[in-house]
């Protein structure tokens, strides 16, 4: 722009006025704006405004560009109040409540590449205000624009068909707002959260936004989109986010180097609802260069996040669901020859004992691991076996363990003792197993204080066992004891059945005598 052309604009723009006032020969000077808001087309609008004595058509399609250009040129002073372009654009923006949905979207698109200002917040606030209407008054799913006549119509029919489409009616705007930049999405989500908009809908939109953006985004843009989506999901209620979708996001993250902070947030969200995960979700390959087949460290971090609880209490039911899931996972990773015993043990002891109602699955996983890792020392084997609660083994599993040559002899003895104590409790009708032992690690030699009936119940105390005895003889002895245990269990069940029949017949006889009493008295 040369000096002669700029002179009529000088009085209306502070920036030009400052530039030309410093020059001794303003008519020969040239002004080049390399970063003018809106480019050449918008500069022509500004020139038209100056040369037409402040007369220009300001509408939603150009108001944002004019506003940014007016700020850039410092057009807040003029000869007449009518010529103050900033005032004119702000007056037009104040009428934003009358703009159509398309006008708002067009304005936001223009603002994406420009410096943020109050106009962006106003547009987003107006958009969110139109979204936060009750589902009965929301636009029908078939329209994706509020400009259509159907926007104000109420879908108030309570038919089954309308209920089926209720959720889709709340997501009609997904495609329209997916064109916004990550920075604007942050502002949009914060506005929606502050207005207490449905977190389930917000979460679904963020997943949709990530998918739609990835089709055309560059690697750097993918990083920004992912981090924005994760950061915004982290602000939502955890129960409103799909665990399956979070795992899908995580598998995308594996191929992208996002920030550690965003990765930690994602892992925390997944861990907080680990009870909703499946085995396939957890089978995530190890990072490049790691020796293990699956990423065990990641699962341990999930477990840590789950046990911390986050915003919600970890109920016993949820813990048991995770316990069942972890038993399946441990069984799946046990055959990995590169899995260290320390990592395997960390998986086994990560959850409290209350997470498992039975130790059968865990015993099966340990059995597989010891078979694949036959070179472990006795000390390493015992550390793993210490995590096994023998009280929660079924009779069949206990028998199998007592005959299992892969397990240390101490474990076989402990399995036999627990089976014997189960039999004692069954015969006595008590539950004093915990007085004796919970695991081989806290095994204490205890003498029985109750009267011993050698004919009815076999009693075996730890002080009578020589653990250093030859393994083959010990296993033969254990097999004989287990057979005796099973025989006594059958006898006990038969006696219980007979007692139940006797009690039932007595009750029937008592009832018949009571009914005959009135007749005898009469």
Automatic annotation (TrEMBL):
Listed Pfam families: NPH3
Domain of life of the native organism: Eukaryota
Matching InterPro entries: NPH3/RPT2-like, NPH3_dom
Coiled-coil regions listed in the entry: 471-505
Biological process terms in GO annotation: protein ubiquitination
Signal peptide (from-to): none
Protein keywords: Coiled coil, Ubl conjugation pathway
Domain NPH3 stretches: 171-422
PROSITE patterns named among the record's database cross-references: NPH3
Family: Belongs to the NPH3 family.
Identification of the protein by name: BTB/POZ domain-containing protein isoform X1
Organism of provenance: Gossypium australe
Taxonomic classification: Eukaryota, Viridiplantae, Streptophyta, Embryophyta, Tracheophyta
């Amino acid at each position: 722009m040369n000096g002669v052309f700029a002179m009529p604009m000088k009085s209306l723009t502070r920036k030009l006025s400052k530039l030309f006032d410093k020059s001794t020969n303003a008519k020969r000077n040239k002004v080049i704006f390399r970063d003018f808001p809106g480019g050449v087309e918008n500069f022509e609008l500004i020139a038209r405004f100056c040369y037409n004595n402040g007369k220009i058509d300001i509408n939603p399609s150009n108001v944002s560009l004019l506003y940014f250009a007016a700020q850039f040129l410092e057009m807040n002073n003029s000869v007449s109040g009518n010529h103050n372009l900033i005032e004119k654009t702000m007056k037009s923006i104040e009428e934003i409540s009358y703009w159509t949905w398309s006008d708002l979207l067009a304005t936001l698109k223009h603002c994406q590449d420009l410096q943020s200002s109050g106009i962006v917040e106003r547009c987003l606030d107006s958009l969110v205000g139109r979204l936060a209407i009750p589902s009965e008054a929301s636009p029908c799913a078939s329209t994706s624009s509020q400009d259509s006549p159907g926007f104000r119509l109420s879908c108030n029919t309570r038919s089954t068909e309308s209920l089926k489409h209720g959720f889709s009616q709340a997501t009609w705007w997904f495609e329209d707002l997916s064109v916004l930049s990550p920075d604007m999405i942050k502002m949009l989500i914060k506005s929606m959260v502050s207005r207490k908009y449905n977190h389930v809908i917000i979460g679904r939109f963020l997943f949709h936004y990530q998918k739609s953006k990835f089709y055309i985004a560059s690697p750097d843009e993918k990083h920004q989109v992912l981090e924005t989506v994760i950061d915004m999901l982290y602000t939502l209620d955890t129960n409103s986010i799909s665990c399956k979708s979070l795992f899908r996001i995580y598998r995308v993250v594996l191929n992208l180097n996002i920030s550690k902070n965003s990765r930690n947030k994602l892992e925390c969200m997944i861990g907080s609802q680990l009870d909703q995960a499946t085995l396939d979700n957890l089978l995530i390959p190890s990072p490049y260069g790691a020796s293990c087949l699956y990423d065990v460290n990641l699962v341990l971090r999930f477990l840590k996040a789950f046990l911390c609880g986050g915003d919600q209490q970890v109920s016993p039911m949820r813990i048991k669901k995770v316990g069942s899931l972890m038993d399946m996972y441990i069984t799946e990773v046990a055959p990995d020859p590169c899995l260290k015993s320390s990592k395997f043990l960390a998986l086994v002891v990560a959850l409290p004992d209350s997470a498992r109602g039975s130790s059968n699955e865990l015993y099966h996983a340990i059995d597989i691991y010891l078979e694949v890792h036959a070179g472990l020392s006795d000390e390493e084997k015992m550390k793993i076996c210490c995590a096994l609660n023998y009280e929660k083994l079924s009779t069949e599993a206990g028998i199998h363990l007592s005959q299992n040559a892969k397990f240390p002899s101490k474990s076989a003895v402990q399995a036999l003792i627990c089976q014997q104590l189960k039999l004692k409790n069954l015969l006595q009708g008590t539950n004093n197993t915990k007085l004796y032992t919970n695991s081989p690690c806290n095994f204490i030699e205890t003498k029985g204080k109750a009267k011993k009936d050698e004919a009815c119940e076999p009693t075996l105390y730890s002080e009578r066992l020589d653990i250093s005895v030859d393994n083959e003889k010990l296993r033969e002895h254990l097999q004989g004891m287990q057979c005796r245990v099973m025989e006594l269990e059958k006898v006990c069940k038969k006696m219980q059945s007979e007692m139940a029949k006797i009690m039932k017949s007595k009750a029937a006889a008592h009832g018949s005598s009571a009914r005959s009493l009135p007749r005898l008295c009469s």
